[in-house]
């Protein structure tokens, strides 16, 4: 039986970081693939070479799937995206073609959830503050909340990352609260999480708040200075989602006014300005340059996910993570 033709359509660096030799071998067993990295320019300039391409393996650096690109890929039936958000690459023309689209965002959630857990543990143990105290010649266990009965952790959004964090937190005797107006009661029951009726309730009650909401027009700036002011004494604020979900100027003002609050931030609004942001100068901020997601060897699991999605496609089975026009609007 003839194998369907596939190509890699992404940046060379992304191909190398997502698809290791073992994954390349598996793709070669399932499809007719030349292992080369193809660019959008290649497809547009030489459409005759791509007429019979049925499957695209992609990731960061994937070109926009607009009418012109799709016209050069007339046989395309499946695009397996070995990364998270597909927001920048899909178009109305793509949806009209009814092309099967999958994303590896659920496996990309694992390192983000792990980063969040490390931040919660270090934050609620006041590890960074204690370390700073030691450097000033002060050894103190004051204001450490810890992780056990009586500690309340709040999560904003129960998407793939938020749900994983809930699972990790289940080993602790904590009160976990979440705010997600789009999650059904069955999700809260399954995760043994209490529903917060409002962001105000969550921020005013929780010793630690972690943000996992996607950046959408309606979520931009949703975490306001007023909400941050409501945090209890010595609270921890964590953001690994997108910087623009938070009113960053207000966050800076609140952290300057409330040195008892400790913020762990992996994202800021302008990700070209990590070295210039005023947040970097605050002693109660631990800032990293968007490293919570898959990096290094963690990225190979993304490639393995595309292989599983391809295997399911060829076997006529449903995808693990299907991205459709209907569910796309609520994704990151």
Automatic annotation (TrEMBL):
GO MF annotations, alphabetized: glyoxylate reductase (NADPH) activity; hydroxypyruvate reductase [NAD(P)H] activity; NAD binding
A single GO cellular-component term on record: cytosol
CDD domains in the record: 2-Hacid_dh_8
Keywords: NAD, Oxidoreductase
Coiled coil: none
Residue stretches making up the D-isomer specific 2-hydroxyacid dehydrogenase NAD-binding domain: 131-292
Keyword Transferase: no
TM stretches of this protein: none
Gene3D superfamilies in the record: NAD(P)-binding Rossmann-like Domain
Protein name: Hydroxyacid dehydrogenase
Origin species: Ruficoccus amylovorans
């Amino acid at each position: 039986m003839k194998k369907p033709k596939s190509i890699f359509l992404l940046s060379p660096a992304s191909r190398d970081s997502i698809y290791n030799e073992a994954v390349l071998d598996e793709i070669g067993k399932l499809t007719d693939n030349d292992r080369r990295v193809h660019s959008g320019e290649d497809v547009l300039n030489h459409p005759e070479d791509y007429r019979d391409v049925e499957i695209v393996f992609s990731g960061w650096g994937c070109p926009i799937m607009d009418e012109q690109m799709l016209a050069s890929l007339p046989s395309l039936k499946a695009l397996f995206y070995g990364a998270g958000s597909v927001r920048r690459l899909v178009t109305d023309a793509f949806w009209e073609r009814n092309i099967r689209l999958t994303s590896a965002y659920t496996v990309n959630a694992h390192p983000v959830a792990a980063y969040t857990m490390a931040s919660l543990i270090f934050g609620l143990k006041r590890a960074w503050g204690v370390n700073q105290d030691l450097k000033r010649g002060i050894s103190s266990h004051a204001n450490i909340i810890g992780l056990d009965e009586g500690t309340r952790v709040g999560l904003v959004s129960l998407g793939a990352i938020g749900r994983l964090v809930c699972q990790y937190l289940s080993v602790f005797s904590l009160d976990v609260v979440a705010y997600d107006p789009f999650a059904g009661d069955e999700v809260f029951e399954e995760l043994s999480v209490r529903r917060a009726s409002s962001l105000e309730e969550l921020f005013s009650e929780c010793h630690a708040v972690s943000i996992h909401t996607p950046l959408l027009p309606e979520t931009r700036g949703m975490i306001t200075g007023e909400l941050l002011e409501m945090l209890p004494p010595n609270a921890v604020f964590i953001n690994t989602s997108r910087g623009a979900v938070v009113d960053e100027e207000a966050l800076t003002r609140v952290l300057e006014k409330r040195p008892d609050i400790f913020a762990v931030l992996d994202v800021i609004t302008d990700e070209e300005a990590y070295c210039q942001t005023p947040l970097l100068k605050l002693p109660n901020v631990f800032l990293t340059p968007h490293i919570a997601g898959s990096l290094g060897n963690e990225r190979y699991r993304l490639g393995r996910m595309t292989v599983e999605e391809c295997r399911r496609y060829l076997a006529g089975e449903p995808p693990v993570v299907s991205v459709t026009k209907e569910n796309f609007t609520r994704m990151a």
